[in-house]
Amino acid sequence: MPTGRAGATGSVAKSVVILRAFMMPSASEASAAGLDAKGAIAQLEANTEQLVRERGKSMEQTMARRESHRYFVERSNQDEKGELGWDEFQAVKYLAWEHQLALTILASWFIAKTRLDWMQRFERNPALLEQYEIDVLPLLSVSNVRELLRAAMPLPQLTTQEAAALVVKHLTNRTRSRKSRLSKQQEGSFET
Hints:
This protein has helices at 27-32, 37-55, 59-84, 94-121, 126-132, 142-152, 160-191, and strands at residues 2-7, 10-15. It has a two-stranded antiparallel sheet. It has three domains: 1-88, no CATH class; 91-155; 157-192. It is mostly helical. The longest helix is centred in the C-terminal third of the chain and has 32 residues, at 160-191. It is built from seven helices and two strands.
């Protein structure tokens, strides 16, 4: 049973195969209910048909729809991980992983909010669909938002002297941090 949706990168489809499976009651349960194997199967089929009639949709359609929603949510998560750099991140310590996760979530939220604001402020021109002969116009991407930020908040260009002073500052801070860490390690080793 094929399910799908139109996406910004094209039509996405997923095939779902559904096989009916019935749970047979144990021999003691069947004999207690006065059913043989054929009677137990008939009872299960009747219960299944009753559920289908009550819901108004076939169980297969409902299951396929739910599976396709799950697939598209997982696919969206995978795409965002790649766009935000989460797929390449390697943390040595749990605290570093938590910090990176928090920053990634904030970036994802900012991009989602920017996309929503963009959609509300600027209506999509239906003529573009006909002009490009596509079903769906793409949303803002992470790189689009990055370019918007670069245009709105350009980085100052450093002179050679300012760049050298910045490097010296960073090296000084790293040296102080290393010295502090080593002294704490030495103090800890004498206590044990």
